[in-house]
Amino acid sequence: MRWPKNTTQTLAIWIVPAHYEATRLARNETSPPSRQVIRVDSQTVEPTQTVQSPSAAGRLKPNSLGVLGILFFVLSAQAPLTGIAGAVPIAVAIGSGAGAPAAYAAVGAVILLFSVGFVAMGRHVVDAGAFYTYIGKGLGRPIGSGSAGVALFAYCAVQAAMYGLYGFIVSGLVEQYAGLSTPWWVWVLVTMVIVQILGAAGIEMGAKILAVFVLAEFSILFAFALVTFFKGGGPEGLGFAHSFSPHAALQGAPGVALMFAVASMFGFEATAIYGEEAREPRRTVPRATYLSVMFVTVFFAFTSWMLVSAHGASNATAAAGKALESGDATSWVFAPITAQFGGWAGDALPILLVTSLFAGALAFHNSANRYLFSLGRDGLLPRGLTAVNRRHSPWAAGGVQTVISLALVMSFALLGKDPVLSLFSWFSGVAVLAVMLLYFLTSVSVVVFFRRERLDTRAWNTLIAPVLGALGIAGAIWLILANFTTLIGGEQGTAMWLELTVPAVLVLGVIAARLTRGRAMADV
Questions:
Q1: Spelled out in words, what is the top-level CATH class assigned to the domain 7-35+55-515?
Q2: What gap in Å lies between CA 97 and CA 260, rounded to an integer?
Q3: d(CA 257, CA 263)
Q4: Assign residue 279 a region: left if phi > 0, alpha if psi is -120 to 50, beta otherwise?
Q5: What is the pTM of this model?
Q6: How much is the average pLDDT of 372-390?
């Protein structure tokens, strides 16, 4: 299937925010607590009594997910095959060449530092919420509420972006194999209905569906990587130094490679979204968080290294450049896998790319509707969003999320905009920027909160790691802004307006917080 010109740049930002929030739904509360009695020592804060508000909102189904179940949601949102097939060829072609795998390792290290403070904050902030709860506790309610707007904006943007790319690929495959030409948005509408049904069917059903798709993606990619590794690499051997030495990592345009690595790897914080539905959430959520960060880092760094090795370190950059010029960046990934396993792999990979995007759309739907549910429960949005069905799924929030995605997608369709070059590239690019801003604000909030409250005296968890993470994230934001036109595959004017939407949403959120009488973060 042929991709439109410049699509190969925009495919790289498949983006994952499966979502994106540091929520403490891990408390199994049906509504925000009206009073907390807390015992404090030098290391921990444990709530010993919680008095529930008499007007309890809807409750998600507890004890539904273990560590693996949460991991499937997070990993599916990161759409691993889409990230490998879209981002790695571009990181190699216009980034740091054979040294691109080092960029994934570096970004993984920064995210791991961020996750230390993220987990520490979650053990002490007992309000149900998301990024906005953490940021509000450290930086104040107005900034916290403004960040809620940014987070919700990022969710809606990435959901619509995934639908755009999904519709384009499916319509192309249908035309290729069935000879039937259909508008891309037709398949999006059909899929929205399926996603809405699965989202309302219960969290266990979603986990089972995603498990199948995620295992299929990871199986073929890991199988290829392992076979290549144990065969001693490609024509030039494994070439570890060609991909991970300081010289290799800094060659070419390392900033571009780091930018695409960032776009491919975030989303791990969605582990906390499912805390309310997790078994033993105080253990499950931290474990799932650290496991997801380490697993995704190893996966992207190792798989990209083996792809470079399969092409040969000296030839990888030129081969990736040719793939981009041909309009099909995925061929740089699919060709060596097909050569390794045979023609069946070449037929299966495009189908797996579709299921990768479908799994991402379902995971984003589940993340976004739980975020809307949390905002409604905390009073930042209407209470009606807390309604759950007999399976304890947030059907009202899910319906609103689907309607928002429908409006965004169909507006692009009616205006005749390209689903990839416009819808996918614009929305996924701006979502990357929005989520990285939330990461930075959260890291700063962790430091401020623990310096003020002194609830945890561990310097590494509450100061050193968060500060290092904040510095790394600030660097990533600078790289994203400096290369944003490349990230979205568009024009400089378009890039500027899209960049401005993120701070604009933050400011509007702050203004809205001053106008609302909701209970959100009243104790900050």
A1: mainly alpha
A2: 13
A3: 10
A4: beta
A5: 0.80
A6: 82
